[in-house]
Every structure is written in structure tokens, then in C-alpha cells.
UniProtKB/TrEMBL annotation:
<dbReference type="InterPro" id="IPR017871">
    <property type="entry name" value="ABC_transporter-like_CS"/>
</dbReference>
<dbReference type="InterPro" id="IPR010230">
    <property type="entry name" value="FeS-cluster_ATPase_SufC"/>
</dbReference>
<dbReference type="InterPro" id="IPR003439">
    <property type="entry name" value="ABC_transporter-like_ATP-bd"/>
</dbReference>
<protein>
    <submittedName>
        <fullName>ABC transporter ATP-binding protein</fullName>
    </submittedName>
</protein>
<dbReference type="GO" id="GO:0005524">
    <property type="term" value="F:ATP binding"/>
</dbReference>
<dbReference type="GO" id="GO:0016887">
    <property type="term" value="F:ATP hydrolysis activity"/>
</dbReference>
<dbReference type="Pfam" id="PF00005">
    <property type="entry name" value="ABC_tran"/>
</dbReference>
<dbReference type="InterPro" id="IPR003593">
    <property type="entry name" value="AAA+_ATPase"/>
</dbReference>
<feature type="domain" description="ABC transporter">
    <location>
        <begin position="2"/>
        <end position="248"/>
    </location>
</feature>
<keyword id="KW-0547">Nucleotide-binding</keyword>
<comment type="similarity">
    <text>Belongs to the ABC transporter superfamily. Ycf16 family.</text>
</comment>
<keyword id="KW-0067">ATP-binding</keyword>
<dbReference type="InterPro" id="IPR027417">
    <property type="entry name" value="P-loop_NTPase"/>
</dbReference>
Length: 250
């Protein structure tokens, strides 16, 4: 599914190198958690995979199902099946949530040469996803994320993911700002989307998220590289010992 080899990336504005030879393999159907101290490059990795323009890849390869995606734009990567759930979802005044969801879904379908969904089919898909995530009709009528709580924004992103059905879902600190109830709802939404044809990269500081989204593999990231990998028990070890042995934050 996802194959990253010797990935080097830097910030375009100042040339600071953040990723320094990162290697990662995520097979289809698996959930891989990435943990590490602040400044280790976890969010940068998510942005580079999604195609954010503020970063320049200087070496290495990123392949999705055997296809190099580094030369593709963010929209093209999304159409190939890459989805990024942000740590802090943006508010977009003036853009209705339903309008955004329908436009996004149909844009990806057009890019793949598929027909657009009809209004009745779209409404059916949204209603099912919203019901599963506890998203009210009032939320769906509002501008995208405007006036939403942190938990509501994260639920809205999982709804987007449910509609788009990506191949690779990257969750960048999805647990940030969530109380226990919201964390459970969001995690249940993610777990319902687990399938043999879909992979997840879950970026988090804390083990608590992994109580609800059970990873197949846990990786420790430090100073721009994966420095250790193991099973779910590794997250428990990190919770007890912290990241001191992996060096100070970059």
C-alpha cells in the first residue's frame, strides 16, 4: 500500500531539513501509529504525504500501490486515495458544510472518471455517516467548521473520510482537544472504516487514542526518522518511560 524510502524533506522558506532519511512500509489493511516527541517531524510527514506546498522533497520516494505520488499535486493525490485529517481543521466561512462535502466527493469521482453522485444518493450517504458520528442536521446546515467545537470539527472530518472512502487515511493528532466522549465517537467512526483495502497512519503523542484505535504496528519517530518499531505494547512502554531515550526534540 504505502512505501516510503529514504525520504528527505525541508521547509521551502528557510531550507530547514525536517525529514532525514525516513523509511516506512504500511501494508494494505493495517493501522500504523507514529509516536514521538515534539519537533520530531510527525506532522511534517503527514503534510509531505498529502502534498502540502510549503515543503520540498530533496530525496527519496513515496509510493502508493506501487505508484510514485511525489510529482502529483494535493488534489491528484486525494483522487488517488490519500486523505489527511488535520490536527486543527480550518473554519471556512461562507462555504456550507453540505456544499463542501458534495463538491469534494464529486470532484474526486470526476478525477477518477466516475459519474457524479445524484442528490438523493448523496443525501443518503451523508445521513448514514452523520447518524453514526452523532452529527446533527443543524451542524450540516452551517458553514464548514464555523462555530464547531473541537470534537465537532473532528467528527466532521471523519464524516468526510467516510464519504470519500480513501485508500490511505492519515490522522494527524486526531485526539488533540477531544474529551473522552468525543474521542470514543471519533475512534468508532475510524474503526468502522477499517478494511483489507484501506490503511491508516495514526500520528499521536499519547497512548490513550490507541486504546480505541488498535494499531498493528507502532513506530517511534525522532529527529526526522523512524528509530524504532514494535507492536501495540511499544505505545504502553512509551507512556511509562516517555521519549527521553530517543533524544531531545529536534
Amino acid at each position: 500500500m504505502l512505501s516510503i524510502k529514504n525520504l528527505h524533506a525541508r521547509i521551502e522558506d528557510n531550507g530547514q531539513e525536517i525529514l532525514k532519511g525516513l523509511d516506512l512500509e504500511v501494508p494494505a489493511g493495517q493501522v500504523h501509529a507514529i509516536m514521538g516527541p515534539n519537533g520530531s517531524g510527525k506532522s511534517t510527514l503527514s503534510y509531505v504525504l498529502a502534498g502540502k506546498q510549503d515543503y520540498e522533497v530533496t530525496d527519496g520516494t513515496v509510493e502508493l500501490d506501487g505508484e510514485d505520488i511525489l510529482e502529483l499535486g494535493a488534489d491528484e493525490r486525494a483522487a488517488k486515495g490519500v486523505f489527511l485529517a488535520f490536527q486543527y481543521p480550518l473554519e471556512i466561512p461562507g462555504v456550507g458544510t453540505m456544499t463542501f462535502l458534495k463538491a469534494t466527493l464529486n470532484a474526486q469521482r470526476r478525477a477518477r472518471g466516475e459519474g457524479e453522485v445524484s442528490v438523493p444518493e448523496f443525501m443518503k450517504l451523508v445521513k448514514k455517516g452523520a447518524d453514526d458520528l452523532g452529527i446533527s442536521q443543524d451542524m450540516l446546515k452551517r458553514a464548514l467548521n464555523v462555530g464547531f467545537s473541537g470534537g465537532e470539527k473532528k467528527r466532521n472530518e471523519i464524516l468526510q473520510m467516510a464519504l470519500l472512502q480513501p485508500k490511505l487515511a492519515i490522522l494527524d493528532e486526531t485526539d488533540s482537544g477531544l474529551d473522552i466522549d468525543a474521542l470514543k465517537v471519533v475512534s468508532e467512526g475510524v474503526n468502522k472504516l477499517r478494511s483489507p483495502d484501506r490503511s491508516f497512519v495514526v500520528i499521536t503523542h499519547y497512548q490513550r487514542l490507541l486504546n480505541y484505535i488498535k494499531p498493528d504496528v507502532v513506530h517511534v519517530m525522532s529527529k526526522g526518522r523512524i528509530v524504532r518499531s514494535g507492536g501495540p505494547e511499544l505505545a504502553l512502554e512509551l507512556e511509562k518511560k516517555g521519549y527521553a531515550e530517543y533524544g531531545e526534540a529536534a
